[in-house]
Amino acid sequence: MKTRMLALIALLVALTGFSAPSEAVASTVRLDGVTVHLKDGTRQVVTVNRTDGHHARVTLWGYSDGRWQQRMQATDGRIGYGGLVVARHRRQGTGTTPLGTFGLPSAFGMHARDAAWALPYRQVRRGDFWVEDNGSRYYNRFRNQSQGGFRWWLPSSDPNASERLTDYRTQYEWSILVGFNRGQVRHRGAGIFLHVNGSGATAGCVSAPRWFIKRLMARLDPAYRPLIAIGR
């Protein structure tokens, strides 16, 4: 049965000229000096290479014709004011950016959804927060204050204060979720994104110039299993 099925597939390819898209087969690759731990089928990677202080080079790569190729690059990227730290050792409130390879599963921002965007997307509205309350079951999740379940009223000085997304209209004009701490380990940190540059270092996110993030929103495709790899 298996032999017959393979023969039918081969015949279909011959008749239609169809071929499956090329996929990255290596489990690990180095791009711009950054080690990337690939998932099966990953064909898009964003690398973040710290260059000096809180500055970094941010590059989009695509896999085609059997090799990784640079698609676009920004030299004025930013990382956290606390520098870089191994992901499992990161602590909330330290301003550090986690090292490692993470998924880019979804995005949010201040604009209505554009038809060119393939990532799951949520437009920010009044009362939307990223939950950083360690006592909440919604820790490290997008949630509106009207839904309850977290202490949205805590002042920003409180270690359990959550992030009101509308307070960051410049940085979060477009913001792509970095899949760090999706298991919701308390006190490890929440709200790590790839977003538009602010005036300086981030509080642990990765940021890049507005033009770069805007173009990235139109290029990232969940079918290509996009990743971000953060290195030194």
Describe, in short, the structure shown.
Residues 1-26 form the signal peptide. By secondary structure, the chain is mainly beta.
3D architecture notes:
InterPro entries: LD_TPept_cat_dom (IPR005490). Keywords: Signal. It comes from Nocardioides hankookensis. The chain has 232 residues and is mainly beta. It has one domain. The protein has 2 helices and 16 strands. The strands form 4 sheets. Strands 5-4-3-16-7-6 form a 6-stranded mixed sheet, with no helix packed on it. Strands 9-8-13-14-15 form a 5-stranded mixed sheet, covered by helices on one side. A hairpin with a 2-residue loop joins strand 3 and strand 4. The longest helix is centred in the N-terminal third of the chain and has 15 residues. It is globular, with a radius of gyration of 19 Å.
